[in-house]
Amino acid sequence: MTTLFVNACMRGEDSRTLALCREYLQGKEDVVEVDLAALGLKPFDAQMVAYRTEKQKAKAWDDPIFDLSHQFAEADEIVIGAPYWDLSFPAALKVYMEHVSVCDIAFHYTEDARCEGICKAARLTYIASCGGFVEGANFGYEYFRGIAKMFGIPETRFVAAEGLDIVGIDVEVQLDKARAQIAALD
Questions:
Q1: How far apart are CA 92 and CA 67, in angstroms?
Q2: Buried b / exposed e across 136-158, counting CB within 10 Å, b at 16+?
């Protein structure tokens, strides 16, 4: 069973989100990590869209422009590690999803024009850390709930360590709450 870990922890090893993700992934045997900070993807521009469209029309699915989409679609489990930034997540994660979201790899349209997901993953787990308390406004997780539905991933799960930058708060207590959520997942 392949677990795809999409690492959007832009602070690298200093990231509390990354530490929680590593705890979740501990013991999983086949983990493939995509480090978005190291990947340095560019957002799609007109030239890239035209190139990808040309390759889609030609059904040239082995072109490298589709590699990230194939990797995502073929994983058995998806883990997204993303700190809570600006009501959602770092921009690099959205750019990554532009590369992943490919018709006829991650989803397709049926004859009656319904979008149908064709990803293999049984679940998507979204792990975050937040400087404050989100209070129901984690649009990053909401975005991935929508993506999971679009891509045919039947289960989504969310873990967050919140309030980590509040003066006077016990950070370890907050992290332990998230660790307890993680332990209850599997």
A1: 17
A2: eebebbbbbeebbeebbbeebbb
Query: What does pTM read for this prediction?
Result: 0.95
Give the CA diameter of the chain: 59
Q: Are 7 and 21 in contact (CB under 8 A)?
A: yes
Contact criterion met (CB below 8 Å) for 16 and 175: yes
Least confident of 48-57, 92-101, 126-135, 141-150: 126-135
CB hemisphere CA count around 92 (13 angstroms): 19
Question: Could you tell me the end-to-end alpha-carbon distance of the chain, in angstroms, rounded to an integer?
Answer: 14
With contact defined as beta carbons under 8 Å apart, do 8 and 96 qualify?
yes
Q: How far apart are CA 115 and CA 103, in angstroms?
A: 9
What element of type H or E holds 22? helix 16-25
Q: Return the axis-axis angle of helices 16-25 and 171-185, rounded to nearest 10°.
A: 30
